Amino acid sequence: MFSEVTVCSSCVMDSTDPNISFDADGVCNHCHEAKVKLEQGWFPGDEGRQQLEAISNEIRQHGKGREYDCIIGVSGGVDSSYLLHVAKHEMKLRPLVVHVDAGWNSEIAVKNIEQLVKALDLDLFTYVVNWEEMQDLQLSFLKASVANQDIPQDHSFFAKLYDYAAKNDIKYIINGSNLTSESILPQSWGYDASDLKHILGIHKQFGTKKLKTYPKMNFFMHRVYWPYVKKMKIVRPLNLIDFDKNKAIKFLEENYGWRYYGGKHHESKWTKFFQAYYLPEKFGFDKRKAHLSSMIASAQITREQALAELTKPLYDESELVQDKRYIARKLAITDEEFDNLLSLPNKDYSDYPNQISLLNGLRNVKRIVRK
Protein backbone atom coordinates (compact mmCIF):
# COMPACT_ATOMS: atom_id res chain seq x y z
CA MET A 1 0.00 0.00 0.00
CA PHE A 2 2.86 2.36 0.86
CA SER A 3 6.17 2.77 -0.98
CA GLU A 4 9.51 1.74 0.49
CA VAL A 5 10.68 4.10 3.19
CA THR A 6 14.03 5.64 4.11
CA VAL A 7 14.87 5.47 7.82
CA CYS A 8 17.00 7.96 9.74
CA SER A 9 20.41 6.64 10.79
CA SER A 10 20.13 8.20 14.26
CA CYS A 11 16.45 7.82 15.27
CA VAL A 12 13.59 5.74 13.81
CA MET A 13 11.76 8.48 11.93
CA ASP A 14 11.38 7.77 8.24
CA SER A 15 9.99 9.02 4.96
CA THR A 16 6.39 8.25 5.91
CA ASP A 17 6.74 11.88 6.94
CA PRO A 18 6.62 13.52 3.47
CA ASN A 19 8.48 16.58 4.78
CA ILE A 20 11.43 14.71 6.27
CA SER A 21 14.96 15.45 5.02
CA PHE A 22 18.32 13.78 5.62
CA ASP A 23 21.86 15.13 5.83
CA ALA A 24 24.95 13.50 4.27
CA ASP A 25 25.18 11.07 7.20
CA GLY A 26 21.56 10.00 6.88
CA VAL A 27 20.47 11.90 10.00
CA CYS A 28 17.01 13.44 9.67
CA ASN A 29 15.95 17.02 10.26
CA HIS A 30 13.86 15.91 13.24
CA CYS A 31 16.99 14.81 15.09
CA HIS A 32 18.70 18.13 14.48
CA GLU A 33 15.60 20.07 15.51
CA ALA A 34 15.05 17.91 18.61
CA LYS A 35 18.62 18.54 19.73
CA VAL A 36 18.03 22.29 19.65
CA LYS A 37 14.66 21.96 21.40
CA LEU A 38 16.16 19.87 24.18
CA GLU A 39 19.13 22.18 24.65
CA GLN A 40 16.88 25.22 24.85
CA GLY A 41 13.88 23.77 26.67
CA TRP A 42 14.79 20.77 28.84
CA PHE A 43 16.68 21.36 32.07
CA PRO A 44 17.10 18.09 34.00
CA GLY A 45 19.81 19.40 36.37
CA ASP A 46 20.33 22.22 38.85
CA GLU A 47 19.21 24.94 36.42
CA GLY A 48 15.85 23.22 36.01
CA ARG A 49 15.42 22.81 39.75
CA GLN A 50 16.09 26.51 40.26
CA GLN A 51 13.56 27.41 37.54
CA LEU A 52 11.01 25.01 39.04
CA GLU A 53 11.46 26.53 42.51
CA ALA A 54 11.14 30.06 41.12
CA ILE A 55 7.94 29.39 39.18
CA SER A 56 6.50 27.43 42.12
CA ASN A 57 7.09 30.39 44.41
CA GLU A 58 5.49 32.71 41.87
CA ILE A 59 2.39 30.51 41.61
CA ARG A 60 2.06 30.15 45.39
CA GLN A 61 2.42 33.89 45.91
CA HIS A 62 -0.22 34.72 43.31
CA GLY A 63 -2.53 32.07 44.77
CA LYS A 64 -2.53 33.37 48.33
CA GLY A 65 -6.07 33.81 49.56
CA ARG A 66 -7.50 31.82 46.64
CA GLU A 67 -9.05 28.38 46.82
CA TYR A 68 -6.71 27.09 44.11
CA ASP A 69 -3.43 28.49 42.82
CA CYS A 70 -3.40 26.60 39.53
CA ILE A 71 -5.33 24.18 37.33
CA ILE A 72 -4.28 20.82 35.87
CA GLY A 73 -6.06 18.82 33.17
CA VAL A 74 -5.80 15.04 33.64
CA SER A 75 -6.49 12.10 31.36
CA GLY A 76 -5.29 9.18 33.48
CA GLY A 77 -2.18 8.90 31.30
CA VAL A 78 1.37 8.82 32.59
CA ASP A 79 2.31 12.46 31.91
CA SER A 80 -0.67 14.12 33.59
CA SER A 81 -0.66 11.56 36.41
CA TYR A 82 3.00 12.11 37.25
CA LEU A 83 2.42 15.83 36.91
CA LEU A 84 -0.09 15.70 39.78
CA HIS A 85 2.57 14.17 42.02
CA VAL A 86 5.12 16.82 41.01
CA ALA A 87 2.66 19.67 41.53
CA LYS A 88 1.60 18.51 44.99
CA HIS A 89 4.83 17.16 46.47
CA GLU A 90 7.62 19.01 44.66
CA MET A 91 6.01 22.34 43.79
CA LYS A 92 3.78 22.46 46.91
CA LEU A 93 0.83 23.72 44.89
CA ARG A 94 -2.94 23.60 45.44
CA PRO A 95 -4.26 22.62 42.00
CA LEU A 96 -7.81 22.21 40.86
CA VAL A 97 -7.82 18.98 38.86
CA VAL A 98 -10.06 18.96 35.78
CA HIS A 99 -11.02 15.99 33.64
CA VAL A 100 -13.05 16.37 30.45
CA ASP A 101 -14.92 13.19 29.59
CA ALA A 102 -15.52 13.10 25.84
CA GLY A 103 -17.08 9.64 25.95
CA TRP A 104 -14.03 7.53 25.18
CA ASN A 105 -12.49 6.94 28.62
CA SER A 106 -11.05 3.53 29.33
CA GLU A 107 -11.80 1.98 32.72
CA ILE A 108 -8.08 2.06 33.51
CA ALA A 109 -7.91 5.81 32.90
CA VAL A 110 -10.89 6.53 35.15
CA LYS A 111 -9.43 4.36 37.93
CA ASN A 112 -6.02 6.04 37.60
CA ILE A 113 -7.56 9.48 38.01
CA GLU A 114 -9.65 8.43 41.00
CA GLN A 115 -6.69 6.88 42.79
CA LEU A 116 -4.35 9.82 42.17
CA VAL A 117 -6.71 12.56 43.35
CA LYS A 118 -7.71 10.54 46.40
CA ALA A 119 -4.13 9.73 47.41
CA LEU A 120 -3.03 13.34 46.87
CA ASP A 121 -6.16 14.79 48.50
CA LEU A 122 -7.00 17.01 45.51
CA ASP A 123 -10.33 18.37 44.27
CA LEU A 124 -11.51 16.91 40.95
CA PHE A 125 -13.95 18.60 38.59
CA THR A 126 -15.25 16.39 35.76
CA TYR A 127 -17.02 17.86 32.75
CA VAL A 128 -18.94 15.41 30.58
CA VAL A 129 -19.28 16.46 26.94
CA ASN A 130 -22.76 15.98 25.50
CA TRP A 131 -22.45 12.60 23.82
CA GLU A 132 -24.96 13.21 21.01
CA GLU A 133 -22.97 16.26 19.91
CA MET A 134 -19.63 14.52 20.32
CA GLN A 135 -20.87 11.49 18.42
CA ASP A 136 -22.08 13.66 15.55
CA LEU A 137 -18.78 15.55 15.40
CA GLN A 138 -16.71 12.36 15.52
CA LEU A 139 -18.74 10.93 12.66
CA SER A 140 -18.28 14.18 10.74
CA PHE A 141 -14.50 13.86 11.00
CA LEU A 142 -14.64 10.24 9.86
CA LYS A 143 -16.67 11.32 6.84
CA ALA A 144 -14.15 14.11 6.20
CA SER A 145 -11.46 11.38 6.08
CA VAL A 146 -8.70 13.62 7.46
CA ALA A 147 -5.67 12.34 9.36
CA ASN A 148 -6.22 13.90 12.78
CA GLN A 149 -9.33 12.18 14.09
CA ASP A 150 -8.46 13.24 17.64
CA ILE A 151 -9.37 16.88 17.02
CA PRO A 152 -12.97 16.62 18.37
CA GLN A 153 -11.65 15.22 21.68
CA ASP A 154 -8.56 17.41 21.98
CA HIS A 155 -10.36 20.67 21.23
CA SER A 156 -13.01 20.01 23.86
CA PHE A 157 -10.35 19.14 26.46
CA PHE A 158 -8.41 22.38 26.13
CA ALA A 159 -11.43 24.61 25.51
CA LYS A 160 -13.14 23.54 28.72
CA LEU A 161 -9.91 23.63 30.74
CA TYR A 162 -9.13 27.22 29.67
CA ASP A 163 -12.75 28.26 30.07
CA TYR A 164 -12.93 26.88 33.60
CA ALA A 165 -9.62 28.51 34.52
CA ALA A 166 -10.76 31.89 33.20
CA LYS A 167 -14.14 31.75 34.96
CA ASN A 168 -12.46 30.87 38.26
CA ASP A 169 -9.72 33.49 37.85
CA ILE A 170 -6.96 30.88 37.80
CA LYS A 171 -3.89 32.27 36.09
CA TYR A 172 -1.57 29.25 35.92
CA ILE A 173 -2.24 26.17 33.81
CA ILE A 174 0.13 23.34 34.72
CA ASN A 175 0.71 21.28 31.59
CA GLY A 176 2.15 17.76 31.27
CA SER A 177 3.64 18.12 27.80
CA ASN A 178 7.35 17.39 27.78
CA LEU A 179 10.28 17.36 25.38
CA THR A 180 11.77 14.06 26.54
CA SER A 181 8.98 12.12 24.82
CA GLU A 182 7.45 14.77 22.53
CA SER A 183 10.31 16.72 20.93
CA ILE A 184 9.57 15.03 17.60
CA LEU A 185 6.15 15.06 15.97
CA PRO A 186 5.81 15.72 12.22
CA GLN A 187 3.30 18.43 11.35
CA SER A 188 2.34 16.46 8.24
CA TRP A 189 0.90 13.69 10.44
CA GLY A 190 -1.94 15.79 11.78
CA TYR A 191 -3.39 19.26 12.22
CA ASP A 192 -3.83 21.82 14.99
CA ALA A 193 -6.78 20.90 17.21
CA SER A 194 -7.28 24.52 18.27
CA ASP A 195 -8.60 25.56 14.83
CA LEU A 196 -12.31 26.08 15.46
CA LYS A 197 -12.91 27.21 11.88
CA HIS A 198 -11.68 23.79 10.72
CA ILE A 199 -13.94 21.96 13.17
CA LEU A 200 -17.04 23.96 12.31
CA GLY A 201 -16.32 23.72 8.58
CA ILE A 202 -16.18 19.94 8.68
CA HIS A 203 -19.22 19.73 10.92
CA LYS A 204 -21.23 22.05 8.67
CA GLN A 205 -20.53 19.79 5.69
CA PHE A 206 -21.09 16.42 7.37
CA GLY A 207 -22.88 16.95 10.70
CA THR A 208 -26.58 16.66 11.43
CA LYS A 209 -26.89 18.05 14.98
CA LYS A 210 -26.21 21.50 16.39
CA LEU A 211 -23.17 21.83 18.64
CA LYS A 212 -25.02 23.71 21.37
CA THR A 213 -22.89 22.77 24.38
CA TYR A 214 -19.74 21.29 22.83
CA PRO A 215 -16.77 23.23 24.37
CA LYS A 216 -15.30 25.66 21.85
CA MET A 217 -12.43 28.14 21.75
CA ASN A 218 -11.94 30.50 18.84
CA PHE A 219 -8.67 32.02 17.65
CA PHE A 220 -9.12 35.26 19.58
CA MET A 221 -9.91 33.52 22.87
CA HIS A 222 -7.10 30.97 22.63
CA ARG A 223 -4.34 33.11 21.12
CA VAL A 224 -5.16 36.61 22.39
CA TYR A 225 -7.76 36.94 25.16
CA TRP A 226 -6.65 34.16 27.52
CA PRO A 227 -2.85 34.66 27.26
CA TYR A 228 -2.69 38.46 26.89
CA VAL A 229 -5.89 39.89 28.38
CA LYS A 230 -6.44 37.36 31.18
CA LYS A 231 -2.65 36.86 31.34
CA MET A 232 -3.02 33.11 31.79
CA LYS A 233 0.31 31.31 31.80
CA ILE A 234 1.17 27.75 30.79
CA VAL A 235 3.83 26.06 32.95
CA ARG A 236 5.50 22.79 31.89
CA PRO A 237 7.24 21.39 34.99
CA LEU A 238 8.26 18.10 33.35
CA ASN A 239 10.71 20.08 31.21
CA LEU A 240 12.37 21.35 34.40
CA ILE A 241 13.17 17.94 35.94
CA ASP A 242 14.90 14.76 34.84
CA PHE A 243 11.64 13.31 33.58
CA ASP A 244 11.97 9.74 32.34
CA LYS A 245 8.69 8.21 31.18
CA ASN A 246 9.62 4.61 32.00
CA LYS A 247 10.80 5.55 35.50
CA ALA A 248 7.67 7.63 35.98
CA ILE A 249 5.47 4.64 35.10
CA LYS A 250 7.28 2.46 37.64
CA PHE A 251 7.02 5.18 40.29
CA LEU A 252 3.27 5.63 39.74
CA GLU A 253 2.66 1.89 39.85
CA GLU A 254 4.61 1.42 43.07
CA ASN A 255 3.31 4.49 44.92
CA TYR A 256 -0.23 5.03 43.67
CA GLY A 257 -1.44 1.68 42.32
CA TRP A 258 -1.54 3.33 38.90
CA ARG A 259 -1.89 1.02 35.86
CA TYR A 260 -0.34 1.33 32.41
CA TYR A 261 -2.72 1.13 29.43
CA GLY A 262 -0.35 -0.11 26.71
CA GLY A 263 0.71 2.90 24.59
CA LYS A 264 1.03 6.68 24.42
CA HIS A 265 -2.43 8.23 24.84
CA HIS A 266 -4.08 4.79 24.83
CA GLU A 267 -5.92 5.81 28.00
CA SER A 268 -8.62 6.89 25.53
CA LYS A 269 -10.31 4.04 23.68
CA TRP A 270 -10.79 6.24 20.63
CA THR A 271 -7.20 7.52 20.60
CA LYS A 272 -5.90 3.97 20.90
CA PHE A 273 -7.85 2.93 17.79
CA PHE A 274 -6.95 6.15 15.98
CA GLN A 275 -3.21 5.90 16.62
CA ALA A 276 -2.78 2.13 16.48
CA TYR A 277 -5.05 1.38 13.51
CA TYR A 278 -6.59 4.34 11.68
CA LEU A 279 -3.40 6.35 11.11
CA PRO A 280 -1.00 3.52 10.20
CA GLU A 281 -3.49 1.58 8.08
CA LYS A 282 -5.07 4.51 6.27
CA PHE A 283 -2.25 7.08 6.08
CA GLY A 284 0.89 5.06 6.84
CA PHE A 285 1.67 7.14 9.95
CA ASP A 286 2.95 5.18 12.95
CA LYS A 287 3.14 7.66 15.84
CA ARG A 288 5.29 5.26 17.83
CA LYS A 289 8.17 6.32 15.59
CA ALA A 290 7.91 9.94 16.70
CA HIS A 291 7.51 9.02 20.36
CA LEU A 292 10.42 6.56 20.34
CA SER A 293 12.60 8.95 18.34
CA SER A 294 11.95 11.65 20.94
CA MET A 295 13.12 9.26 23.65
CA ILE A 296 16.23 8.44 21.60
CA ALA A 297 16.96 12.16 21.30
CA SER A 298 16.71 12.57 25.08
CA ALA A 299 18.90 9.47 25.62
CA GLN A 300 16.17 7.54 27.44
CA ILE A 301 16.36 4.58 25.08
CA THR A 302 18.72 3.43 22.34
CA ARG A 303 17.91 3.22 18.65
CA GLU A 304 18.19 -0.57 18.89
CA GLN A 305 15.57 -0.65 21.65
CA ALA A 306 13.28 1.55 19.56
CA LEU A 307 13.66 -0.67 16.50
CA ALA A 308 12.85 -3.71 18.63
CA GLU A 309 9.74 -1.97 19.94
CA LEU A 310 8.59 -1.25 16.40
CA THR A 311 8.65 -4.97 15.53
CA LYS A 312 5.80 -5.52 17.95
CA PRO A 313 2.30 -5.47 16.44
CA LEU A 314 0.29 -2.30 16.93
CA TYR A 315 -2.85 -4.28 17.71
CA ASP A 316 -3.76 -7.74 18.88
CA GLU A 317 -6.07 -9.10 16.18
CA SER A 318 -8.85 -10.25 18.50
CA GLU A 319 -8.67 -7.00 20.43
CA LEU A 320 -8.92 -5.02 17.19
CA VAL A 321 -12.13 -6.83 16.24
CA GLN A 322 -13.60 -6.09 19.66
CA ASP A 323 -12.55 -2.43 19.59
CA LYS A 324 -13.93 -1.85 16.08
CA ARG A 325 -17.23 -3.37 17.11
CA TYR A 326 -17.31 -1.28 20.30
CA ILE A 327 -16.60 1.95 18.40
CA ALA A 328 -19.21 1.22 15.73
CA ARG A 329 -21.86 0.59 18.40
CA LYS A 330 -20.78 3.72 20.26
CA LEU A 331 -21.17 5.78 17.08
CA ALA A 332 -24.55 4.11 16.38
CA ILE A 333 -23.51 2.73 12.99
CA THR A 334 -23.18 -0.80 11.63
CA ASP A 335 -19.84 -2.59 11.23
CA GLU A 336 -20.22 -2.26 7.45
CA GLU A 337 -20.89 1.48 7.68
CA PHE A 338 -17.81 1.88 9.87
CA ASP A 339 -15.63 -0.04 7.40
CA ASN A 340 -16.98 2.11 4.57
CA LEU A 341 -16.02 5.28 6.45
CA LEU A 342 -12.52 3.92 7.08
CA SER A 343 -12.07 3.15 3.39
CA LEU A 344 -12.99 6.62 2.11
CA PRO A 345 -10.31 8.40 0.03
CA ASN A 346 -7.76 10.18 2.19
CA LYS A 347 -8.14 13.94 2.56
CA ASP A 348 -5.84 16.68 3.81
CA TYR A 349 -6.88 19.26 6.38
CA SER A 350 -6.42 21.90 3.66
CA ASP A 351 -9.38 20.37 1.78
CA TYR A 352 -11.60 21.98 4.43
CA PRO A 353 -11.91 25.47 5.96
CA ASN A 354 -8.96 26.29 8.20
CA GLN A 355 -6.94 29.10 9.75
CA ILE A 356 -3.44 27.87 8.98
CA SER A 357 -2.34 31.21 7.51
CA LEU A 358 -3.49 33.01 10.65
CA LEU A 359 -1.78 30.43 12.89
CA ASN A 360 1.47 30.63 10.93
CA GLY A 361 1.32 34.42 10.96
CA LEU A 362 1.05 34.47 14.73
CA ARG A 363 3.93 31.99 15.06
CA ASN A 364 6.10 34.22 12.87
CA VAL A 365 5.26 37.26 14.99
CA LYS A 366 6.17 35.38 18.17
CA ARG A 367 9.41 34.19 16.57
CA ILE A 368 10.36 37.76 15.66
CA VAL A 369 9.49 39.02 19.16
CA ARG A 370 11.61 36.30 20.81
CA LYS A 371 14.60 37.20 18.62
Q: Which CATH architecture would you pick?
A: 3-Layer(aba) Sandwich
Kindly state the percentage of residues in helix.
40-55%
Content-based structural category: alpha/beta
Please state roughly what percent of the residues sit in beta strands, choosing from under 5%, 5-15%, 15-25%, 25-35%, 35-45% or over 45%: 5-15%
Spatial order of the strands in the main sheet?
3-2-1-4-5
Shape verdict? globular
Written description of the protein model:
It is a single chain. This protein is α/β, with parallel strands linked by helices. It has one domain: HUPs (Rossmann fold, 3-Layer(aba) Sandwich). It is built from 16 helices and five strands. It has a five-stranded parallel beta sheet with strand order 3-2-1-4-5, sandwiched between helices. Helix 3 links the parallel strand 1 and strand 2 (95-101). The protein is globular and about 55 Å long. The model has no long low-confidence stretch (mean pLDDT 94).
Descriptive tags:
371 residues; Rossmann fold; alpha/beta; five-stranded parallel beta sheet; 5 strands; 53% helix; 6% strand
Task: Present the secondary structure layout.
Layout: H1 29-41, H2 46-62, E1 70-73, H3 78-90, E2 95-101, H4 107-119, E3 123-128, H5 131-144, H6 151-167, E4 172-174, H7 179-182, H8 196-206, H9 219-229, E5 233-235, H10 245-256, H11 269-283, H12 287-297, H13 303-310, H14 317-330, H15 335-342, H16 356-370
Parallel strand pairs: 1-2, 1-4, 2-3, 4-5
Helix pairs in contact: 3-10, 5-8, 11-14
Structure described in brief:
It contains 16 helices and five strands. The protein has helices spanning 29-41, 46-62, 78-90, 107-119, 131-144, 151-167, 179-182, 196-206, 219-229, 245-256, 269-283, 287-297, 303-310, 317-330, 335-342, 356-370; strands at residues 70-73, 95-101, 123-128, 172-174, 233-235. The chain has a five-stranded parallel beta sheet, with helices on both faces.
